[in-house]
Amino acid sequence: MELKPLDPKGKLYLIPTRLGDDVPLEVLPISIKKVLEQVNHYIVENEKPARRFIKKVSPSKSQRSLVIHTVNKYTDTSEIPSYLTPCLNGESIGLLSDAGCPGIADPGAEVVKIAHEKGIPVTPLVGPSSILLAMMSSGMNGQNFTFNGYLPIDKNERKSTIKHLEKISLERNQSQIFIETPYRNDKMFADLTSMLHPNTRLCIACDITLTTEFIATKTIEEWKKEEIDLHKRPTIYIIQRE
């Protein structure tokens, strides 16, 4: 006779999504399609993009069967534990970001934290991470790097942070990764080329996995001779001073 666990829990699947409008199964493994077809409960960053993604990957799945909760900057975090109740009742849940891997530069990290606290199995699925893809293609130190998220908006704070990251990069031989809101990209590029040492290397990785993908690593002195348009294009920045 097979003995079943007394308290079987569903899993929290961490489901990566596309970084843009790629054909889903050109950048995502078939395992994601299989999970989407099995799971009806979802925690997502925004409902409309999540529904479009699920429909794109699994067109035959009934949208009416989906139970969706959103977790973003407007969410009352005290509500999140209740979103995981299906797992405690034996049903699995999918966690989706708007783009890329949930939990990485993404509010879904709080969901994963609570899942661990409740003893819910967490299962990450394979998919694209713009941060890691940029690091892979930068030619910089892939054994020692830090992701710093968004830099300050205030001009003086931003200048201080950029110079500080450059100093750490030199002292620790450490690549420094950060991002910016896409509509402020051109201002970020101007700040970097004006504030960093001429010999500091800067990687700009833009529209990763898309047909418009642009990835290049040059010194600041070399970038000053370039004209590029990054406006409203998702971009990862990496700097390293040697």
UniProtKB/TrEMBL annotation:
The keyword Ribonucleoprotein does not apply. One of its GO terms (biological process) is methylation. Coiled coil: none annotated. InterPro entries: 4pyrrol_Methylase_sf, 4pyrrole_Mease_sub1, 4pyrrole_Mease_sub2, rRNA_ssu_MeTfrase_I. The keyword Methyltransferase applies. GO terms for molecular function: methyltransferase activity. Keywords: Methyltransferase, Transferase. This is SAM-dependent methyltransferase. It comes from Aquimarina algiphila.
